[in-house]
Structures are given as structure tokens and as C-alpha cells.
Specification:
By secondary structure, this protein is α/β, with parallel strands linked by helices. It contains 21 helices and 19 strands. Helix content is 42%, strand content 12%. The strands form four sheets. The protein has a seven-stranded parallel sheet with strand order 1-10-9-6-2-3-5, covered by helices on one side. A seven-stranded mixed sheet has the order 13-12-11-14-15-17-16, with helices on both faces. A three-stranded antiparallel sheet has the order 4-8-7.
């Protein structure tokens, strides 16, 4: 079969050159225009679901066009979380639209080395589980680098891989992801543009980024076999997909920076038909998104004005009210200055908008039905522990819904510790049974023989779930809440025992919807950070959004929090919640209750610090940024984005002149730990002390 495919490919090449030349001549003006601006490669910004649909549809076009010409379509594939949506859409098109893969030939970018093809970590297994076994592709047409060969055979295998691609006339359409080092495939920093398929040593950042998949960096292979940069550049069409805030910086470097061997993705600037597909989060650092006024005319909105003034304050080192006309003119903001006539009115408007964002406890909801969705059992206290404490003090009807068990994030040694406790407890109090003793023996025997990354047996998974549930209850009890306010949804998509999860399904949505229907919340809190290492936050958010579409009650106000991986910037936040030193300390104490995540988190991402250290840094940093803008100084702050029915609720504006008025009264219970005599925790009331009007 290979010979017949090769002969067809040769015929295709002979007649393709004139067509390719004509196509390039048509595309060249657009390419030149792009390269004259900041962005040096075509770029599409869309939500991930739309990106997946666009890329899958284009693959289908290529496949059908080649089939119509009697030629085998050749598609280059990638692994990881990025292309999953594309593969799901291709599966749907095969099932619902009859997209035929019987003559499609595929070549994968890479594979870890050494790696057995049946390992849960292998890209061979990944591709079959996520695509190949769901379509009618022929196994003989599937090509993946082999990670199970003896080292002395790898070089010949790589050469053969290249030969097969050449015989088929090259790759028609290549999917790429991008690593935090800018690698495509596993072409790490230093990879040359002439590089071909080869064995390569993995960069430290790459291995740390993969640590979540391998249950620890020490288990990540140190090498991989990867398609080379030159092989990728030979593809007729390339689609690079990137999602999440954690990809924003490397996307900016790849799209706007100079071509650099340390960032392999920059080579795509030389490709005649490469397109970057990024979601809004991954596009955030691009010049036209972050500072559009620098690159040309803008249509000014209030949000854009706030962003521009905050940026200008940072560029000049001045607080908002001290910015002058010259500052605006010298930093590409003359058009904004012209809208207001002078700096004073702009400064005042933006200052008032920023002041309105700040809400102390007295301005936060009280007496409301509130559901807090926490993807993992510690996201609530990590990301919104400060406001959770205040909401409880304000007498809200609070329920914290933990969406997943978080059991894969519990180290085995924690299970051993609890098993030992059970054994001692049974001995000392003469309780227990043969069943318990047998279960303890089974768990210890499994842990003794467990291989790195091996899926836990059911008993171990249940123990890890129980450990995290107990920690979650202990965490909210720090604020005076009770165990009855904790609800454990244990969504099915998470229950694979592996880092990689199932897609959100009808049962996940049903469980979430049932909770909403039961509690009828007026306000819900959800995780809005999309950069957690294994995608659970993104999937939990999807479950909530889908459930809200079916919810029969009044549309609740949705507060999006961040904190575990990054924080909402002041310019994007709708609400800034100030925390005193004592309140931040109490929040950190609640985080400490999650002992299985202390000292060293199993999935820390690229930040080695403990979660409480990240929280302390982010919350105090937000307060310092607010202070530098000339707003009131606070010890720490949490930030939130708020929407209702997709729109931002109106905020009460506080005129600058109000800051000169006499201070008003506030409750002393704004300070953590203070409890008026005769009151139960969470009840309003208490003696009054002075608080300035802006608090």
C-alpha cells in the first residue's frame, strides 16, 4: 500500500507546483501586510469551542478535497489537552456527517522516550482513546514515533519516519500546540529550523509542565522523539492552537517577537500558510489586545478608558489623579485626552470607577441565598476565603459545593498515614472487624506494589476522597461555618482515577442543575481561572454554565473568582474586596487545613510555592497596585468579575468629593474574630467604630 500511496504522491507533486505558486501569489499581499505590523503571523481569536469547530471543519475540507482528487489525505496530529475539542468534533463529523477516514494517513508529532505504547502516559494510547478507535481509520495508516525501541534503533526509526512522510508527499494539514517554552512538538529551546525527526532531551520547564500527567516531575521521562522544525515547516498548512492565561506570554513572543531558536514557534512566522488560533485568555498579552491605543485608533469604551489610565499610571509611576496632559500625549493617548479636553476629567472619572469597585463587608451581599462552586476541595478557601468569611458573617444562606473529589491530588503517603491510624484506633479502642482488617491489608499491599502513575484501586480512591472531604469541612469551619454547609457533588467526569478526565456529560450537568434547583441561589461563585494544569477548573465551569441554561429559577448573579493560578487584574475586576492583616491570616489558616496539599502540592504547575504563599503574594500585590493608583491603602485584596445574564450589574458610583466627607459608621465585626456579646457566629450586629466613606 505504501508504494501505491507514494506513486500517487509523486504525481500530485508534479502538478501541484503551479497551483502552489498561484496560491502563494494570492496570499502574499495579506502576509506582507501582517508582517508590517506587530503580528507577524495570521491569528484568529475565538472561544475554544469555536476554534475546535473551525480547525475540524478545515481538516474535513482538506480530507474531502484530497479524496475527490483520488489522493490520500495526510494529516499531522498533536496530543495533550489542546486538540481534544478538535478530535471530538472530527468524531462527531464521522458519526453524523459520514466523514470518511478510511484512506487518511496520520503522523503524530512526538512521543516520550522511553515509553511503552500501552502506558497510560503514552501518546500512542492517547490517540487511540481520543480519536482513532472512534473513526474508521486503518491501523496501517496511523504513524506515531515509537518510544519502546532500544536506543540504538531510534536514529534509524526517526529517519524512516521522515522517509514515510516524504513518500506520501508531505503533510497536508498539521495541528500544533505550544509549550510554555514556545516549543512545538518537543522542539525545545535551541532547536534549529533545519531539524528533523530525532531524539531530544526535554527542557526542565517542559518536564515540570508535564508533572501533573505523571504524578510528579520525577516520573516524567527526560527525553522524547519529536518531529523536527523543518518537517513541520514542510507541511502545506499549519494550525497552532493555544488556550488559557498561562499561554498568553509565549503567544505574544511567538506572534510579535523576532524569530529565535529559543522559541521554536517563532519559526512559523516564515511559514506561508500557518495560522495561530487562540482563545481570549491566551491573546491577553498581544499588543492589540493589551494596549490597542499603541497600534492605532480605538473606539473608546468605559472599560477601555479604565485599562488605558491604569496602564498610563504604571508607565509614568504616577497615581491616577496626578496624571497630566503631557502624560497622555506622550503615551499614545491623545485621542482619549481629546474626548475629555484635559487630563483632570478623565482622571476623575476613572478614579471614581475604581473606587466603586471596592466593597468592604458592609457593601457585600447579606441575607442572600449563595452557592459557592469549588472545583477542588480547597479552591474555595484558596481563591475566595476572604469573601467567604465576610459572606458568612453577613448572614447569607451559604452552601459550598465541591464539584470533584480531588482524590488524585493526594499523595500515597497520606493514605498510609490514615491506614496506620485506623489500625491503631481499632487496636486501642478494640473496634473494627475482619472486613476492615482485610481492607487495610489490601490497601497496603497495593501501595507497596504500585507503579508511578498507576491508577489507584477503588479503596484507595475512596480513602483519598474522604481525606479531601474532611479537609474541606475543616477549612470552612475556620470561618465558623458548619459541615452541613458543605455539599460534595463528586461529578462523574473526574472519576477516571487518572489526570486526564472524561468530557463533561449529561450526568455532570444533571447533578449541578439539581443543586441549583434545590437551593435557588440568588448569587453563585464559580472558578474563572482557566490555567490549572489539568483543566478541571475549565471543565467545572462548563458544567455550571450548561446547568444554568436549563435552570428554571431566576438568573443568579455570577461571581467569577481566581486565585490558585493567577488573580483578576484591577482593570478587569468588577469587585475588589479588602482584607485586613487578620482576615488574610484567617484565610491562610483555612488553607492550612488542607494538610494533604501542604508542603508540596502534587500538581503545583510552574509555581513551586505552596498555595498559601501564592495567595499571600497575590492578595497583597493587588492591594499594592490599588495603593499605587492613589486609591485607599489596604493590607490585601481579593478581586472578582461579576455578571448577570452575561451583563455587568450596575455599580454605585462614589464621587471623588465624597472622600472629603466625615467618616461614617461600620460594624466592628468587619474585623475577624470579633463577636458581639450574645450573638452567634454569622449573625449581623455589633458595636460600631469609625470607617472612612470609601471602605
Amino acid at each position: 500500500m505504501a508504494e501505491s500511496l507514494a506513486s500517487k504522491a509523486a504525481e500530485r507533486r508534479s502538478r501541484e507546483e503551479p497551483e502552489a505558486t498561484e496560491r502563494r501569489s494570492r496570499e502574499e499581499p495579506e502576509a506582507t501586510e501582517r508582517r508590517s505590523r506587530e503580528e507577524k503571523v495570521p491569528l484568529v481569536i475565538a472561544e475554544y469551542e469555536e476554534i475546535a469547530g473551525i480547525v475540524a471543519a478545515r481538516i474535513a475540507e482538506v480530507v474531502r478535497a484530497k479524496q475527490g482528487a483520488g489522493e490520500p489525505p495526510v494529516v499531522g496530529l498533536a496530543t495533550g489537552s489542546t486538540p481534544i475539542g478538535v478530535y471530538r468534533e472530527l468524531i462527531r463529523m464521522h458519526r453524523d456527517e459520514g466523514l470518511d477516514f478510511s484512506d487518511v494517513v496520520t503522523f503524530n508529532l512526538d512521543e516520550y522516550y522511553p515509553m511503552a505504547p500501552d502506558s497510560i502516559h503514552s501518546y500512542h494510547r492517547y490517540m487511540w482513546e481520543n480519536l482513532f478507535e472512534h473513526i474508521n481509520i486503518l491501523p496501517a495508516n496511523v504513524h506515531l514515533p515509537r518510544g519502546d525501541l532500544p536506543r540504538e534503533e531510534v536514529e534509524a526509526h526517526a529517519a524512516e519516519y521522515e522517509r514515510k512522510i516524504r513518500e506520501l508527499g508531505g503533510i497536508d494539514y498539521q495541528i500544533l500546540g505550544i509549550g510554555k517554552t514556545g516549543h512545538v512538538g518537543f522542539n525545545e529551546p535551541g532547536s534549529g529550523i533545519e531539524s528533523r525527526t530525532r531524539l531530544i532531551a526535554l527542557d526542565t520547564v517542559t518536564r515540570r509542565d508535564a508533572a501533573a500527567d505523571f504524578f510528579g516531575e520525577e516520573n516524567v521521562p527526560t527525553e522524547a522523539i519529536t518531529m523536527g522544525v523543518a518537517t513541520i515547516m514542510d507541511a502545506r498548512e499549519v494550525a497552532l492552537i493555544a488556550t488559557g492565561e498561562h499561554k498568553a506570554e509565549i503567544i505574544r513572543r511567538s506572534v510579535e517577537g523576532e524569530i529565535n531558536p529559543d522559541v521554536a514557534a517563532t519559526y512559523l512566522q516564515k511559514h506561508r500558510n500557518a495560522t495561530f488560533y487562540v482563545d481570549p485568555a491566551a491573546s491577553a498579552d498581544l499588543t492589540r489586545i493589551k494596549t490597542p491605543w499603541v497600534v492605532g485608533e480605538v473606539s473608546w469604551t468605559r472599560d477601555l478608558e479604565i485599562r488605558a489610565v491604569i496602564w498610563l499610571s504604571g508607565m509614568t509611576g504616577k497615581s491616577v489623579l496626578k496624571l497630566d496632559n503631557r502624560d497622555y500625549r506622550e503615551h499614545h493617548l491623545s485621542s482619549l485626552l481629546a474626548r475629555y479636553g484635559s487630563a483632570g476629567p478623565i482622571n476623575g472619572e476613572v478614579f471614581n470607577c475604581l473606587i466603586a469597585k471596592i466593597r468592604g463587608r458592609s457593601k457585600l451581599p447579606s441575607g442572600k441565598r449563595v452557592v459557592v462552586f469549588s472545583p477542588h476541595p480547597d479552591d474555595d478557601v484558596i481563591s475566595m476565603g476572604g469573601i467567604l468569611n465576610k459572606l458568612h458573617q453577613n448572614g447569607n444562606n451559604l452552601v459550598v459545593a465541591y464539584q470533584t473529589s480531588g482524590n488524585i491530588a493526594v499523595f500515597d503517603h497520606e493514605v498510609r498515614r490514615y491506614v496506620d491510624f485506623l489500625r491503631r484506633f481499632g487496636r486501642d479502642f478494640q473496634v473494627g472487624s475482619e472486613k476492615l482488617a482485610g481492607l487495610i491489608d489490601e490497601i497496603e499491599a497495593f501501595l507497596d506494589s504500585k507503579e508511578p502513575g498507576q491508577v489507584d484501586i477503588g479503596a484507595v480512591q475512596e480513602m483519598k476522597r474522604s481525606i479531601r472531604e474532611a479537609e474541606a469541612v475543616s477549612g470552612i469551619e475556620t470561618f465558623g461555618m458548619t459541615r452541613h454547609q458543605a455539599c460534595f457533588l463528586d461529578l462523574p467526569f473526574y472519576q477516571t482515577g487518572k489526570v486526564r478526565k472524561d468530557p463533561i456529560g449529561p450526568e455532570d450537568v444533571r447533578i449541578t442543575l439539581e443543586l441549583l434547583e434545590r437551593h435557588r441561589p440568588q448569587i453563585i461563585f464559580v472558578a474563572g481561572d482557566l490555567s490549572d494544569p489539568h483543566g478541571t477548573h475549565r471543565m467545572c465551569l462548563e458544567a455550571v454554565h450548561r446547568a444554568l441554561k436549563e435552570y428554571t429559577g431566576e438568573v443568579p448573579e455570577v461571581w467569577y473568582y481566581r486565585g490558585a493560578w493567577q488573580e483578576w487584574p484591577v482593570s478587569e475586576a468588577d469587585v475588589l474586596v479588602p482584607l485586613s492583616e487578620d482576615e488574610l491570616r484567617l484565610k491562610i489558616f483555612a488553607i492550612f487545613k488542607h494538610q494533604s496539599q501542604k508542603d508540596k502540592a502534587p500538581f503545583p504547575g510552574l509555581d513551586d510555592r505552596e498555595f498559601w504563599q501564592r495567595v499571600e503574594d497575590r492578595n497583597t500585590m493587588t492591594a499594592r497596585i490599588v495603593d499605587r493608583l492613589g486609591l485607599p491603602e489596604y493590607f490585601a485584596m481579593e478581586s472578582y468579575v461579576v455578571r448577570k445574564d452575561g451583563e455587568r450589574p450596575e455599580q454605585e458610583m462614589i464621587p471623588t468629593s465624597a472622600l472629603a466627607r466625615q467618616p461614617r459608621q461600620r460594624r466592628a465585626s468587619d474585623s475577624p474574630g470579633y463577636l458581639p456579646e450574645g450573638e452567634a457566629p454569622g449573625e449581623p450586629g455589633g458595636r460600631r467604630v469609625e470607617e472612612s466613606a470609601h471602605a
